[in-house]
Queue: 2 jobs
Job 1
Amino acid sequence: MSTLEGKIALVTGASRGIGRSIARRLAQEGAFVIVHYASRHDDAKAVVRQIEQDGRKACTICADLSSLDGINHLFLQLEDVIQAHTGAKAFDILVNNAGIGQILGVQETTEASFEEVMSINVKAPLFVTKEALPRLKDGGRIINISSFVTRVASPSVFTYSMSKGAIDTFTLLLAKQLGSRNITVNAIQPGIINTEMNAGTLGDPQGQQYAAGLSVFSRWGEPEDIAGIAAFLASPDSRWIAGQLIDASGGSRL
Ligand SMILES: NC(=O)c1ccc[n+]([C@@H]2O[C@H](COP(=O)([O-])OP(=O)(O)OC[C@H]3O[C@@H](n4cnc5c(N)ncnc54)[C@H](OP(=O)(O)O)[C@@H]3O)[C@@H](O)[C@H]2O)c1
């Protein structure tokens, strides 16, 4: 069943990895999807082609979200893009997915490394959402991509974990604030997923053993494992769920 027919979704960081899978799945459910990317133009175009091959519609939008200038640039384009492709002015679903990984412990952390991860993983979702709110329809959805590292202490990814902790709190605050508009806000906390972010770990037999060993299912996750959860949170069936942090780690370290 197409649960998102007539809906418009913006997925940040949808050129690859988890974002690509979410974009494709929301499109399969009937949404028109705006595939955001930072620099990988060809990858983003390929996602749109994939969606079109599925018989659905999508377009790309490019913006570096590490600065407010880049975020403003995203929203300068967004209204025109939505109107040109759908005739609408507002959209229904925001997925704050774009992010970067960073394998650094507390002792290796520098001001620059801190600012790099915080600007993309925390500042961007905050200001993207701030700009999105006047353009998001009442009854809409915000889905934030957090991480299971806010539950399972992982000191080797110190600032990264802190950045996702901020996303969990952001989710709680927004869910409370947006209830009056019937907008639900929830976060997904993936475990280790097979994307470029984990190319190092999953490219190495020891890393594979570690990643598979975390989950009760003895395997690491695939982007599609997360896309299905995002599709549910985007759907009308999730209307009574707000401010929740949904662990999607295959029961890692239960
Ligand atoms: N992979 C995991 O195991 C895992 C686990 C838990 C949580 N997560 C979270 O899930 C989300 C997606 O992760 P992933 O593994 O799918 O990542 P990925 O494959 O590395 O893809 C990252 C995406 O973010 C975009 N991006 C990177 N820097 C950006 C910037 N400065 N401005 C705008 N967009 C930018 C990239 O665009 P370009 O392609 O154009 O560079 C790409 O679309 C992230 O928030 C991550 O923290 C991942």
Note: The mean pLDDT is 98.
Job 2
Amino acid sequence: MNEQLKTNDPNTNPKRTIRSFVLRQGRLTKGQEQALINLWPIFGIEYNANSPITFDTNTPAVLEIGFGMGASLIEMAKNAPNKNFLGIEVHKPGVGACLMAIEENQLSNLKVMCHDAVEVLENMIPNHSLDKVQIFFPDPWHKARHNKRRIIQPKFVQLIYKKLKLGGVLHLATDWQHYAEHMLEVLTQAEGFENLSPTGDYIPRPDDRPITKFEKRGQNLGHGVWDLQFIKK
Ligand SMILES: C[S@@+](CC[C@H](N)C(=O)[O-])C[C@H]1O[C@@H](n2cnc3c(N)ncnc32)[C@H](O)[C@@H]1O
């Protein structure tokens, strides 16, 4: 795991210049550190561009990008044992925390990866393999000069489109109104996607999406929340 992370360090990998994250190597708790050693081999999937992931075709597959500390992903996986979940996050303490919670809850339907989700999608996720892609509260990069780092961009949405099955859904949520408007514009213009909002814009938070850690922080600051769901037609 450590070696792999060093060689794939997204901050130093010269192949991509604009990234949707800055790697904050926050301190690991003892528990997270142990989980990254002991639980990673069981619930973790190493990044390997030459080894595409095989999804069970009889079970719906849900991909979450940027799960943070993983609490809401754990909740969703617990509530939907009939679905398989894959979570991708670059923040190591978050991956460690999620591994601990997988074991604590004895989940057999959730695996995690610690790598740039763009590269994972490009190189490891087969086309037409996902029933759902969810990205909750992606970094808003709210300064105009940083807007280009937002993960939701036309090219990225096209990549997700390729990976979704027909009838698959992309679910986004943000607490930053300008980002919500940007998401709506990008998705509305994306060929092949149809907005599931009856009003042609946003939807109320669906019952199956737990409130996330980042969302709670925003709510305490008085932020609004915008959910968007688009289906691959
Ligand atoms: C603002 S946080 C939100 C976390 C969580 N979804 C929540 O709502 O509490 C965004 C997360 O996305 C992760 N992230 C950003 N770009 C990513 C990428 N390309 N691949 C994987 N994770 C990414 C960041 O490390 C960060 O933890």
Note: The first strand starts at residue 61 and ends at 65.
